[in-house]
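Dear colleague,

Following up on Tuesday's group meeting, I ran the structure prediction for the two-component complex that the binding team flagged. I've pasted the input sequences exactly as they went in, so you can double-check that nothing got truncated or mislabelled along the way. The structure tokens for the whole assembly follow below. Feel free to forward this to whoever is handling the docking comparison.

Inputs:
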Amino acid sequence: MLKKRLAALAIFLVGVTLGWFVYSTQMNDTRPFRLGLDLSGGTQLVYRADLSSILASDVADSMEALRDTIERRVNLFGVSEPLVQTQRGGTLAGETQERLLVELPGVTDTQEAIRLIGQTPVLDFRLLKENVPETALTPETVDEFFEPATITGKHLKSAQLQFDQSIGVNEPVVVINFDSEGAKIFADLTRENVGRSFGMFLDGSPISVPVIREAIPNGTAVISGNFQAEAAKELARNLNYGALPVPIELISTQTVSGTLGAEAVDSGIVAALWGIGAVALFMILWYRLPGLVAVVALSLYIAIVLALFQWIPVTLTAAGIAAFILSIGMAVDANVLIFERMKEELYAGKTTVEAITTGFSRAWPSIRDSNISSLITAIILFWMGTSLIKGFALVFGLGVLASMLSAIIVSRTFMLALGINAKVGVTRFLFGSGTRI
Amino acid sequence: MFITRNRNIFFTLTGALAALALLSIAIFGLQLGIDFTGGVLVEVSYESIRTSPEVVTDSLRGSGLEEFSLRESGELGYSLRTGELSDEQRDSLAAMFTIGDNEARVDQLTEIGPIIGAELRAKALIALALVLTAILLFVAFAFRKVSKPVSSWMYGLIALMTLGFDVLIPVGFYAFLGTITGASVDVLFVTAVLTVLGYSVHDTIVVFDRTRENLAINQERNRREDFAETAGRALNQTLVRSMTTSATTALALLALFILGPASTANFALMLLVGIITGTYSSIFLATPLLVAVERKFAKGK
């Protein structure tokens, strides 16, 4: 009996410690809950990367490079805790797409977010094919008469705005520097193609097509294309943020305002508190003493789940909060199964301790089966995988596991630790609810 | 046991409810949300008064939006659904709704590309098929040892029929809800359906489990008992538990529905209806069906 009571005490202390830990770290902000964009407010953008010109073996590398580039741009704008990640999707819809997911907490103007990611200045270089009459060059024939050069925008290291004074007026130009590999390629290219026209293309349209006069060994090229100073500055800036290795196209956006997010958090907390209160009150009124034990188990369950939210950490969404509240209602189910069974054993004339142990063991198969069926649903939902549903499934799954733990271990230990073994009226009253089954 | 003896009354009631749900789906229909079709959904709200829909509609037309549906949402808001937004339109969403100096605020904007929509649609169907298959296998496995007087696959089949009913009622309810609040079939709807499936199969299993146990005890003690009585007793023994669990879950969901975030209100309501249905069907449909099937078997012999 002493052992049982010590065990109960230990569990109780663990629960209190957990609860205190969650509470204090939340209050002093050292380990705040991680909130999804629908709660914190912010914007999520999903881009499709156009990899049609990339070899299959280079796809992974290109996506990495794309992710890094976008991440640099986002960081430059001082968004706190942005998330940039690559995804593959669309296979089920018959078209596999490489995607880039960008989450910008706190940015609640979608158009601004899109601007922030930037238009996609894809810089590439092409050589004019030989023997092409100059008059044949029109926007429609560009693709026909140019061939790709060995150097690409990937080799770009930096770009800056300068003013070219050679023709008398201050003409803004963009000077680009290639990295060491690019410099080598560029030197070879210019040496081998002296006299040919070298086209610089931005997003597929030619911005300047100078003739190569001599080999350029130092890895510097000048883009001069009748720029306004402002446009040249923007180009240099965009190139510096990183030229995108592949073009991207926006396919999905989701923006939630901070106000709406904050409202959702507040109402979620209020709903959770009322839900917990209602369930606790119901259990105590209906089951009396065992009900109280179930409420202790429920409190421990809540402490465990909240601690897991912080430690894993789980990104909480409105759907996740819904799952948490749903799980509070379901968490007591194991207790209910056990108590009903216990009551039956009591009516069958068993002593309280016997009733407790038999009740537990008889109820176990049902508890196990019910949790398995809920876990199956949670796993399949998690696989379905939009971030919204993942949030629901993860919390639901954690809830199912934690509730099983709290009911089996906690309720059992506590019920036995109470150690009431008298067949007196008070005990019977405390253990049996009014309805005779 | 009253319920198993008077099962025909409850079969009639169940049938009527199912017919009502089917009727609701047939009349109101289910509208697919942009999650599954692709498209744009905008939620805006005003500070103190809502500009009239006619004025807003004109303003939206003036901004070049052609095909759209505008719906009042909440006390002070609108929800706008349309196909696609240009950069300019996206930039001027708040301005489109701001008429005079009654300023509108964009609370939420969701744009989903057609491929993502198609992908989610496929995923939802696969998930539904997976859950149903998993449940059928699970029930067949759980009852593999029961064969008299009703064979084990019958338990599985009845569990599935019960599930069909459990899904039909909330879906019918949702179709009706859609005409009032504009609720459409979205990812959360599918989540609710799958959660209801997982929840109610468990409810049904607990009752069947008890029947199984009672049959075993009868055999052990060499007791002859009418199957209707055995099953009825199982129902009686699990009745309080079924109701209590539903009550606590329903209490939690009620709190979520009334007090929780607006974005999960439909979801909570759908779950609430699903869980009440699940409890009803495990009590008034599953076991009575089991008894009816046993009668058929007995007559056949």
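The longest helix of chain A spans residues 258-311.

Cheers,
M.
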